[in-house]
Amino acid sequence: MERRTVDRLIYGVIIIVIAGLMVTGIVVRVERRRTGQARAKAEQLVSLLRAEDLPAPSVDVAMSLFGTDGGAAAANSDNPLALELLAMRVANGSERRPVILDRDLFKAEAAVLAVYAPDKLPAFEKYVARMNFADTLPEQETP
């Protein structure tokens, strides 16, 4: 091989390696930022749940469940059909007879929305306000 061809080959490999390292660095930086945001939001959610005396997952579980955007809990919170299906499922597994629910069943969802989708919280609270509630859940023992 000619010296010139070898030089071009070496320069090409060096450029490809540098470009790969740059892309990897950008991906790692974005992922760390997302992880930091997810951890901060998860910590906020866990503290809100504990302040309401509701069972709270660990911060790591909340991070994996809700990420940075709240996942499905936040995405479907303003969909009327999804809200009705949620109410039917928590009211009764058979989805056939109305049941008076405990308000605590919806406090956790409100906490998720307060952290991950605060713009959707008023619509959810308006939906929940039209329901009938009673104290139907046994009191939780605090560990």
Principal-axis shape equals: elongated
The stretches of 5 or more residues where confidence is low (pLDDT under 50) are: none
> How many helices does DSSP assign?
6
**How far apart, in Å, are the first and last alpha carbons?**
74 Å
Main sheet characteristics:
none
Approximately what portion of the residues adopt beta-strand conformation?
Answer: under 5%
What structural class results from the helix and strand content?
A: mainly alpha
Helix content: 55-70%
Give the domain tally: 2
Query: Please, what is the average pLDDT?
Result: 81
How many strands appear in the DSSP assignment? 0
Order of helices and strands: HHHHHH
Radius of gyration: 24 Å
Describe this structure in words.
The chain is mostly helical and 143 residues long. It folds into 2 domains: 1-68, no CATH class; 70-136, no CATH class. It contains 6 helices and no strands. The protein has helices at residues 3-51, 59-66, 71-75, 80-91, 104-116, 121-129. Helix 1 (3-51) crosses helix 2, helix 1 (3-51) packs antiparallel against helix 5 and helix 5 (104-116) packs antiparallel against helix 6.
Topology:
Elements: H1 3-51, H2 59-66, H3 71-75, H4 80-91, H5 104-116, H6 121-129
Helix pairs in contact: 1-2, 1-5, 5-6
A few lines on this structure:
The protein has 143 residues and is mainly α. It is 67% helix and 0% strand.
